[in-house]
Predict the structure.
Amino acid sequence: MTTKNERIETGWNFDNSYSGLPKLFFSELNPTPVRSPKLIMFNESLAASLGLDAKALQGPDGVAVFAGNEIPEGALPLAQAYAGHQFGYFNMLGDGRALLLGEHISPFDERVDIQLKGSGRTPYSRRGDGRAGLGPMLREYIISEAMHGLGIATTRSLAVVTTGESVYREIEQPGAILTRVAASHIRVGTFQYAARWGTVEDLRALADYTLQRHFPEVAERSKVDDAENRYLSLLKAVMKRQAELIAKWQLVGFIHGVMNTDNMALSGETIDYGPCAFMDTYDPATVFSSIDADGRYAYGNQPHIAAWNLARLAEALLPLLHDEEEQAVKLAEDAISHFVELYYENWFAGMRAKLGIFNEEPEDESLIEDLLSMMKKVGADYTNTFRALTVDKPEETALFGTEEFVQWYELWQARRGRQQESAADAQQLMRSSNPALIPRNHRVEEALEAAVQQGDYSVMERLLDVLSNPYAHTPEQANYATPPVPSARPYRTFCGT
Ligand code: AMP
Ligand code: MG
C-alpha cells in the first residue's frame, strides 16, 4: 500500500464524491492485479497540469497504481453503472472493464475522474474479459491527445501500461491499461439507468450531483430563484455544450463512430475512443466503423444523432421536469427542438472563422455551402482544402482550375474585403481555425504498428509531437498532411477494443 509520504510525493489527492450517490449507481471493487506491469506511455504535460509528480509516478509505485496492482491512498475504486442505447437499442451496460479510482483534486482546484480502463472484470462485464488490448489503448491515447491539441473538449490520457498478459480478440495482443482523466464519466446512459431502475429520488440525486459538478452556476442560480426549473436548465446546459462539441467535431472532420447514448458525456467532453477516425475526402456519408453498416453514425449524421441522444436524456429527466407528465413532455420537446439550430449557430461561426470571416452576412451560408458542395463533387481532401486556402495556395486544392472555383474564389475575396479587419488578421483567424494536420488514419496505423509489432515507440512519439499543436503550421507538419494513397482506402476501424 502507498504510504502517506508517497502520496505527497506523487501528488495524488483523491476525493470520492461519486460514491456519495445512492448505491445503485456503482459497485465498489478493486482492480484485478496484473502479472508484470510496464509503463509504456506517460503524459508529462498532463501530469504537470494536474499537479502530479511525473518522476514519482513513473517509478515502480506509481506504475503499480496505473496497473491496478496498488490502490493509492484516498482512492475508493468503483465500477459505474449505466445503461444506453447502442445503435438505437436499449441495454444495461456499466463499466465492464474500467474502474473509477476516484476524483483527483488538483492544486488548481480542478476535480477530475481518474479511471483505469482495462482493469479487470466487474459486475457489469457480461461476457467480456474486463481487459483491453495495447493497440486500442494507444489509439485512444493518440486520438484523445490530438483532440486536445485541436482545442476540442475531451477526456485525456495520462498513462498506458502493458500488463504482461495477453488479450484475445481477432488476434492475440498484449494486454494494456489506459489511465483516463475526465471531467467526469456521467453519461446520458447514466440518466437512462436512473430513470429505468432507480426511484425519482435516485434520479434527482444524480441530477443534483451533475448540476453541482458541471454546472455550478445553474445550481447556484436555482437556489435563489424559485421560479427556475433547475432540471430543465440542466438539460439546456448539456445541450449547449453538446452543440459546441459536435460543431467542433464537424469543423475538423472527426467521426466518433459509436455515438451510443452511453458514449455521450454530460460534461461536454468527447469520450470513448473506439472506432473513431478523421475524414480525408469530404463526404457527409463517410463511415469508418466496420460495424456501422447502415451509416447511423456517419459524419453528416452526427448532429442529428446528438439531438436523438439528448432526446433520450430529456426522456429520462421527465419526472423531474414537471409533476404533470404532459407538461413535462412539452417542456422537453420544446427544449430539444432547438438543438439543431443551436448546433448550426456554432457550426456557422466556426465555418466563418475557417474562411477568415469575422462578421456575419446573410450570403455567408451559401458561400460555405457552395465550397462544400464543390469539395464533395471533386472528392477534395477536407483538411487540406482549408489548409491551402489558409496558406494562400489555392492552386494546391483539388478544386483549382474549375470555372466554378474561380467564381467562388472571387466571391470569397470580395466577402473578406467587406470587413474592417485586415487581410493579415483574417489569415491569422484562418490559421487558428484550420489545422495544418489531423491524425491521418494511415499515420495512426503506422505508429500503432511500430509500437505494437516492433516495440518501437518513436513513430508514435513523433506523431504525438506534431499533433500537440496542429495550428503551428510548421514545415515538419507538412509531411504529415499528405492524405493516404487511394489503395489504403477504404479505411476500416473495428470495435474489437
Ligand atoms: P464501448 O463499446 O467501449 O463503449 O463499451 C460498451 C460496453 O461494453 C461497456 O459497458 C463496456 O464496459 C463493455 N465492454 C467493452 N469491452 C469489454 C470487455 N473487454 N470486457 C467487459 N466489458 C467490456
Ligand atoms: Mg462506452
Q: What stands out?
A: Residues 187 and 266 are 6 Å apart (CA to CA).
